Structures are given as C-alpha cells and as structure tokens.
C-alpha cells in the first residue's frame, strides 16, 4: 500500500490517503483539505472507497462530508464516536471551539455513516484492494482508533504523538482509560512500525517506546 499525507490548514491535522492499486481511502479529513485531496486523488488516478476517522473530533472530520458527497462514499469510524458527527462542537470546550476558527453553519455532516465495531478490541476493514486493521484505543475519545497498514505503518490519530500522547480532559476522554490503551494497545505494537500521528511529525513505535515519557512511565 501507498500512503500520501495532506496537512490540513486548521490545527495541522495529518490527512492520510491510503491506496492499493487504484483504490484508496481518506483518513482524517480535517478542515480545509478537501480541495487538495481531490487534486491528489485525481492526479493519481485513484478511486476513493471511503472516508475514515481516527476519532470524531471536528479537526479530523470537518471535510469528510464534502468528500463523501463528491465521491458517493460512506463515512466510517468507530461506533463509540459516531454520535460526534451530528454536532461537531457539542463535545468541545468553548476555548477549543474558538481556537479551531470554524463556523457551525459551514459544517456538512456526511450523509451516509457506517460505524464499525471492534469485537475483542480490533477488526479488519476492507475497501476494494485496501485493507486496514482497526485497533480500538480509547482514552482521547471513547472511539479513538489506530489503523495499522500491513506490518509497516500505524495511523495513531490523537492517541500517540512523537514524544507525547493525546489529551484526556475533553468530553469522552479519560486518563485512566488512556493509561490502559497505552499499556495494552500501544506498548504491544511491533516496534518496527512507523507511526503517523494525527498532528506533527512521523515517528516509530521503537522510538516512542524508548523515549516517550508517557510510555516509559507505564513500564513495569
């Protein structure tokens, strides 16, 4: 599979276009990425099959509705975060809503939303030639999800960053649950995996296991 990244102008969200052959999916369609994604997809001769989100916060889903409508494709995210798509600001603090610089009247919710479950903590999602392994990783939000691409890359959303982790103080977040996710999901990932977080630079699982203070603190 091939991975291309478009950085959103709002909060620098890493929007990932994952392709295999001519099929592709878009992960984390943040605010302001739609036009760039369309250009990328058209120039590469790709056919989008779905828009996915690592979680339901507005800075990861804002342009999903526009892309879903353009290509006639569904929105897919963990069932525990699906409720966030109806009102993207309802679970954000007023300060964060202001910081996003977005306006409610400009939001277009995806018309077709197909939530997925993760029985046993994970599931496999297939879209044409594209296959992703979804790992439930709550703590930042109830439905936060890691997407593993083959045995090479994991898209970590706002669960894991280079040198840090996602905040747990917003609606649906939990410091306790995040700790469990770091212990039971993140720390058991293959150290050879590259990590593309929801914001900021890429890293590797090995790098974070060795230097990330939030992972080191949980070692027994």
Explain this structure:
The protein is an alpha+beta fold and 220 residues long. The chain has a single domain (2-216), classed as Ribonuclease Z/Hydroxyacylglutathione hydrolase-like (Metallo-beta-lactamase, Chain A). It has 7 helices and 13 strands. The strands form 3 sheets. A 6-stranded mixed β-sheet has the order 6-7-8-9-12-13. Strands 1-2-3-4-5 form a 5-stranded mixed β-sheet, covered by helices on one side. The chain is globular.
The second-level CATH architecture is: 4-Layer Sandwich
Low-confidence blocks of residues: none
User: How much is the average pLDDT?
Assistant: 93
Shape: globular
Report the CATH C-level class.
Answer: Alpha Beta
Number of helices: 7
Q: Radius of gyration over alpha carbons?
A: 16 Å
Taken in chain order, the helices and strands follow as EEEHEHHEHEEEEEEHEEHH
**Distance between the first and last residues' Cα:** 36 Å
Q: Proportion of β residues? A: 25-35%
Structurally, how many domains make up the residues? 1
Main beta-sheet strand count, sense and barrel state: 6 strands, mixed
Output the strand order for the largest sheet: 6-7-8-9-12-13
Pfam families: Lactamase_B
Domain Metallo-beta-lactamase: 12-199
Cofactor: Zn(2+)
Keywords: Hydrolase, Metal-binding, Zinc
Descriptive key words:
six-stranded mixed sheet, RibonucZ/Hydroxyglut_hydro, 13 strands, 27% strand, MBL_Glyoxalase_II, 24% helix, five-stranded mixed sheet, single chain, Metallo-B-lactamas, alpha+beta, MBL fold metallo-hydrolase, 220 residues, Metallo-beta-lactamase, Chain A
């Amino acid at each position: 599979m091939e991975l291309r990244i478009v950085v959103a102008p709002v909060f620098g969200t890493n929007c990932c276009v994952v392709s295999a052959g001519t099929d592709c999916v878009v992960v984390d369609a943040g605010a302001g990425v739609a036009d760039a994604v369309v250009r990328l997809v058209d120039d590469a001769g790709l056919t989008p099959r779905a828009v996915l989100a690592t979680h339901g916060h507005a800075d990861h889903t804002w342009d999903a509705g526009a892309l879903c409508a353009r290509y006639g494709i569904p929105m897919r995210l963990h069932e525990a975060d699906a409720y966030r798509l109806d009102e993207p600001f309802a679970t954000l603090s007023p300060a964060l809503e202001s910081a996003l610089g977005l306006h409610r009247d400009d939001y277009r919710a995806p018309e077709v939303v197909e939530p997925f479950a993760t029985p046993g903590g994970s599931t496999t999602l297939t879209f044409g030639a594209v296959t992703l392994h979804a790992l439930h990783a709550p703590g930042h939000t109830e439905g936060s999800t890691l997407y593993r691409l083959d045995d090479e890359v994991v898209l970590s959303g706002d669960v894991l960053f280079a040198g840090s982790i996602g905040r747990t103080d917003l609606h649906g977040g939990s410091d306790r649950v995040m700790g469990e996710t770091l212990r039971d999901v993140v720390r058991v990932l293959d150290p050879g995996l590259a990590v593309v977080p929801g914001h900021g630079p890429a890293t590797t699982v090995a790098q974070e296991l060795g230097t990330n203070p939030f992972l080191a603190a949980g070692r027994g």
